[in-house]
């Protein structure tokens, strides 16, 4: 398992070693000792999985307060552009984002710490899976609008399909005013 730094502190891209043969493949998607070495969570409270067709865009979502979540995201089938946005109050990279293509052929993963918004755009029909370090709590959910002009995220889909909830999310500037400067 290879853990790669990203331009944003505490966000990591993870590339497992894939053992392929004529029967298929095998890989480890989580290894406690590797996660401990990098100071990442070693206890996961919830696993989530979704299926989305091409051009679906989900996000940008986060959990606040006592229900903040770190996430370990990957795709089981397909390909997505996975994006996280730093919303940590006082962070030197506040408002910056990191994007990586999660590809079922590579089986790569993205580790997203607490204090980040998270979303993804589906490039190929995908089964998306992610572990959470905390339980989902509806009253603690929040988000940032996907097409925020300040963030200027290049999602790689020309006509994304979004939920009504995601279309009503605030801008980064509105979020900063509501939150007092971040999570």
Describe this structure in words.
GO terms for molecular function: dTDP-4-dehydrorhamnose 3,5-epimerase activity. It catalyses: dTDP-4-dehydro-6-deoxy-alpha-D-glucose = dTDP-4-dehydro-beta-L-rhamnose. With 183 residues, the protein is mostly beta strands. It has one domain (2-179): Jelly Rolls, CATH 2.60.120. The protein is built from 3 helices and 11 strands; from the N terminus they run ββββαβββββββαα. It has helices at residues 32-37, 164-167, 172-179, and strands spanning 2-5, 12-15, 18-21, 24-27, 46-52, 57-63, 71-86, 97-103, 109-112, 116-132, 141-143. The strands form 2 sheets. Strands 1, 2, 5, 6, 7, 8, 9, 10 and 11 form a 9-stranded antiparallel beta sheet that branches. Strands 3-4 form a two-stranded antiparallel ribbon. The longest helix is centred in the C-terminal third of the chain and has 8 residues, at 172-179. The two termini are 31 Å apart.
